[in-house]
Model the fold of this input.
Amino acid sequence: MASNFRKALKPYKRRLRSLLGMQPDELVVISFPKSGRTWLQFMLGEYITRHFALDVQNVIAIKEYTRRLPDFPRLKFAHDERPQWKPAAEQALNKAVYRDQQIILLARDPRDILVSLFFEKTKRVPARRSDRPEFKGTINEFVYHEVGGIDSIITFYNSWYENRDVPRSFHIVHYEKLRNQTRETLSDLLTYLGVEQVNRQYLDEVLELGDINKMRKSEADSAQGSHTLRRSDPKAGNAFQTRAFQPANPDDPESFKVRKGKVGGYTDYLGEQEIAYLDKKISEELNPVFGY
Done:
């Protein structure tokens, strides 16, 4: 009960700090869940800790160590009130609480999000809690589901673009470009964050560590232990020793936090009728600025 009360107060506390001149120079990376947040956070963390020569084991705890860096924004990754657990009509369409923030919106093809979110809700233990009912239908049925289905995703993206003038700055990064042109896109993003000259050697190291197959291997290795720390806990030995990286079933690749990261992978899972339905919905209802 107390925990829920504190969460409800968060937006008001943020606004009060702003009014009192206490707002940190914070840059928030917003994304709909299953848009590649963990991958991006991991790579940014690996680069930032090298760039500033930080002795940090859990690079995912990015908010904790960037708050101490001079002339660099305090980085925070958020899902904006967990839209995957709300019908479209219950999402917060007013983004006034982010008025004093800098926002990067990490966008991904809604069709790929749907597939990844389906496995998150049906395969992964962290997603199945008493206050978050398990989805028991098929992947094709999930497309139309009121909570987390295509309407939830379209509403999330449209509302953010309609509110793009609310925060101090607004910038869109596409997951597809990050996957297909990782070096160039990550380098551009680091420059946007204030890194004046991107170190090529550091970038090479980060790209090697951020390889999806290597991250999956690290997650599989993490299954050998029992971890209780949150992904953002700086006390964790490394990112893969937190409960976020515990596969529900080490023998089931669909139960991993890091799955495939494939662009357009939805065609491997969804039926022709569902793909046609999604294509039509996206074409008619999603703001074309996203390019999907």
User: Anything to note?
Assistant: Residues 2-19 form the longest helix (18 residues). Residues 17-23 have pLDDT under 50 and may be disordered. The domain at 2-290 is CATH 3.40.50.300 (Rossmann fold).
